[in-house]
Specification:
339 residues, alpha/beta
Length: 339
């Protein structure tokens, strides 16, 4: 069976959320300089999906790149935008990284180098880092700071300045941000904090009231994966109670929410079978039932950890002790996962 690679839950949720262009639209209006926003046609933002041939850029996960037309000077917003584009690069950090400014600058350089190789005009790029660490940002935001104070007096033409949206100092204001953006930033900010317990219902309610039902369930499932992978203070039972209250319809059969909901019942059934079935002929039935339950738990844990979910056929190739060992290993990874 192929070895599965774990993906950061922060990366996974961030990309899920901000690949929704309407969220990027709201983020630009709120965080970008007003003088820049008025020159952009925000109705024509596009995600630059799958456009990079530079494997190093793809490996660095710089895949939240958007294009937005620049409006001709003197024309109204309804006038046709000129061919020139602005690229918007979104990055996130769950911990302050000393070399973030260099990392983001390398993204910009790789984009421009690829445009140069393609003999196309270079595109201006506005980069924004959304920081959702546990303490305020304390890393360099420009090249001068990165090099150190001993070079501060020298005129080295080092004027690259990184824009950081530091959520540790952000206070929620419904007048500034849309409900969907507010809840998304709250979830990033409090994902590892005990305060999330009292805020989670409010976060989910904003999504419920702002999204159509299929989209709300999609966001709910993404958020469930995220918080169960990152927050040590939340239990499945607490999240389940909030979901039960918010959803007035049954969960879609086979969905993550449905599987989480039924997990406790399945565990009780397994224990009952293990205690009540006799030895001999019934042993095979008990083992088969137990194997099926543990396989379901393995698939659930893989989804919570951001792993590719193993097929039932692959897992059935394992012996029962091996299946139990794999489930225990995944449970430990979810519990002890470095955040």
């Amino acid at each position: 069976m192929q070895r599965l690679q774990i993906e950061s839950p922060h990366d996974k949720f961030f990309r899920f959320a901000f690949k929704h262009v309407e969220l990027v639209h709201d983020l630009i209006q709120w965080t970008f300089p007003a003088s820049l926003v008025k020159q952009l046609d925000l109705t024509a933002i596009r995600w630059k999906a799958g456009s990079w041939t530079d494997s190093k850029l793809r490996d660095k996960r710089a895949d939240l790149l958007f294009s937005c037309p620049i409006i001709k000077q003197g024309n109204s917003r309804k006038s046709q935008a000129q061919n020139a584009l602005l690229y918007i690069l979104l990055e996130h950090k769950s911990a302050a990284d000393h070399y973030t400014v260099l990392q983001v600058l390398s993204y910009l350089l790789r984009i421009w180098e690829e445009q140069q190789r393609g003999n196309v005009p270079l595109t201006p790029i506005f980069a924004l880092v959304i920081y959702h660490g546990m303490t305020p940002w304390n890393a360099p935001t420009n090249i001068r700071e990165l090099l150190g104070t001993e070079f501060a007096a020298l005129d080295l033409q080092l004027d690259f300045q990184l824009k950081i949206l530091d959520l540790t100092s952000w206070t929620e204001n419904p007048q500034e941000t849309s409900p969907i953006l507010t809840s998304t930033l709250q979830l990033l900010k409090y994902s590892r904090r005990p305060e999330l317990i009292r805020l989670l219902k409010e976060i989910f309610e904003r999504w419920r009231d702002s999204l159509v039902s299929p989209l709300f369930k999609e966001w709910l499932q993404a958020a469930w994966n995220y918080v169960m992978s990152t927050n040590q203070d939340l239990s499945e039972t607490q999240v389940q109670e909030i979901v039960d209250e918010l959803l007035s319809v049954q969960y879609e059969p086979g969905s993550l929410v449905d599987r989480l909901y039924r997990q406790g019942h399945s565990e009780g059934l397994t224990k009952g079978l293990a205690e009540g079935l006799a030895e001999g002929k019934a042993e095979g039935l008990a083992n088969g039932t137990e194997r099926g339950i543990v396989i379901g738990r393995i698939q659930l844990l893989q989804q919570l950890l951001g792993l590719d979910v193993s097929s039932i056929d692959d897992l059935l190739q394992l012996k029962l002790p091996q299946i139990h060992d794999l489930a225990a290993s995944l449970e430990q990874r979810l519990k002890d996962k470095s955040i």
